[in-house]
DNA sequence: ATGTCTTTGTGAACGCGTGCACAAAGATGG
DNA sequence: CCATCTTTGTGCACGCGTTCACAAAGACAT
């Protein structure tokens, strides 16, 4: 789960569970694909397979939105696309600013998935004066000094932070002070924000570490029955009673 | 959370819950920062604050690893860094290939967070013949034709997919066939993989959509008490008993 | 040694999310 | 109109994860 939220107890907005909300974009994507192929209706079984989830879960998810299906037939694709879009707030325009136009920021600016779903890159912001005015993805980069004005002029409420870790909290504070209430954070830092501000984080390094854990486990398991495994590290699961004292470990 | 796994029921490897595994990298990062400041010990309260979690949760997480704390004092920073690194499998070298060297792939190749944690970018692979040989982040890009050989020669078990959605499943199949057992997927598609292969996905668009949902909810809530809200869409939360009829009605 | 004080480690309760399994609803055919 | 068949919507039970609250463990001072 690359994603995590800041505290706040429940967040069950109007009864729609958080887990369901997280899956709605998945359903929406599958439905959009069906819509483009002019498929009129789809059963929970088919759609669930396309979205990679359990069909019962999908039906329960949709039940939170209302009863939009027809028994014996399935769901009307167009209708469902509309309902989910509306529920997610994608029927309106969301201006977004991206702060930190390095490799990642540029990649995000160029990412087509934003524009296609109601998100509009309203501005690119970077602290490097040399970047100012230079167009990235057809949008001229602006300097950090103008951050507050940009947020205000474009009525931005969603900000994307793609700066180095050291600058992230400071940028975050300025975004929030300027009125941003939702932040997507790519910097490897824990951001602290006041109540009422949502933060989601995407941490590439953490994802890889989680994969490494499972990878190691898999290697350890098959090494148990099969001595000469792939990437053999001889001492791992033995579990010495007190653990060996470390050498100085890398960062 | 931008992250999700493919099915598989439990995955509680040796008793360490999945949720705990996902937090270990977070603790590790905070501990590393402390270590660099030569802080010798840290209490669960302090560390939890730094990692942005509940202190009880942190203690329970650590309890799955063993009893590494000292009551009345706290945890030894260096020791804990080592233990978590070992648990996550970061004491060994993980060669990684990145497939799809577009904007995002290049950003990933340049991302410093990989190298610092035992992950080594073993190769960059792209389908564009014009890219072949061109260095990105100091590493020459290789052509997709050589994918299987590259995986094999470098004994790669972790692959990163940063291709367009259309190519992702095909690349995935080839990676898996070549021996990759863990995949980090940035393409906006649901990948299907055989049992035993772990997939984590990072989907930028989905993260934004989840933020938009909460943003809309916030706007709706404050609009209830305050008529002239920010981005006013006049008809949203009233919640007509049956929802308003969409443009196209189902049969 | 003994008492006090801090902090860990964990038992237990609670809530959320998941998946099964089935009844109700509607389509379809005769 | 009735029977049958398909597919939804959901009641229910179970398991995981979170949080509280506290006893046990050790440090430290006297």
UniProtKB/TrEMBL annotation, chains A, B:
Identify the keywords attached in UniProt to this record, alphabetized. Cytoplasm, DNA-binding, NAD, Repressor, Transcription, Transcription regulation
User: What residues are annotated to bind DNA?
Assistant: 26-65
Looking at the record, the residues that make up the CoA-binding domain are 89-190
GO BP, sorted A to Z: negative regulation of DNA-templated transcription; response to redox state
One MF annotation (Gene Ontology) recorded for this entry: DNA-binding transcription factor activity
Which residue ranges have biased composition labelled Low complexity?
225-235
Does the keyword field hold Iron-sulfur? no
Location of the protein in the cell: Cytoplasm
Q: Which GO terms describe its cellular component?
A: cytoplasm
Per the entry, what this protein does is: Modulates transcription in response to changes in cellular NADH/NAD(+) redox state.
User: How would you summarize the oligomeric state and partners of this protein?
Assistant: Homodimer.
Q: What is this protein called?
A: Redox-sensing transcriptional repressor Rex
Native source organism of the sequence: Streptomyces minutiscleroticus
The record lists the lineage as:
Bacteria, Bacillati, Actinomycetota, Actinomycetes, Kitasatosporales
* Recorded name of the encoding gene: rex
């Amino acid at each position: 789960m690359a994603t995590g939220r800041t505290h706040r107890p429940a967040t069950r907005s109007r009864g729609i569970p958080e887990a369901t909300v997280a899956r709605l974009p998945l359903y929406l994507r599958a439905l959009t694909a069906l819509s483009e192929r002019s498929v009129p209706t789809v059963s929970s079984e088919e759609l669930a397979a396309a979205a990679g989830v359990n069909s019962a879960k999908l039906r329960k998810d949709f039940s939170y939105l209302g009863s939009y299906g027809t028994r014996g037939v399935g769901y009307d694709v167009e209708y469902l696309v509309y309902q989910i879009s509306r529920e997610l707030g994608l029927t309106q325009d969301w201006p977004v600013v991206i702060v930190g136009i390095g490799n990642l920021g540029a990649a995000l600016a160029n990412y087509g998935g934003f524009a296609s779903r109601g998100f509009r890159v309203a501005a690119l912001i970077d602290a490097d004066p040399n970047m100012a005015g230079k167009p990235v993805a057809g949008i001229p980069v602006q300097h950090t000094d103008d951050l507050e004005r940009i947020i205000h002029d474009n009525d931005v409420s969603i900000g994307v932070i793609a700066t180095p870790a050291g600058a992230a909290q400071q940028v975050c504070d300025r975004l929030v002070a300027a009125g941003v209430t939702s932040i997507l954070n790519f910097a490897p830092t824990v951001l602290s924000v006041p109540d009422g501000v949502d933060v989601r984080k995407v941490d590439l390094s953490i994802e890889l570490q989680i994969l490494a854990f499972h990878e190691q486990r898999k290697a350890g398991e098959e090494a148990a029955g099969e001595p000469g495994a792939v990437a053999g590290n001889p001492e791992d699961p033995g579990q010495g009673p007190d653990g060996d004292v470390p050498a100085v470990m890398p960062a």
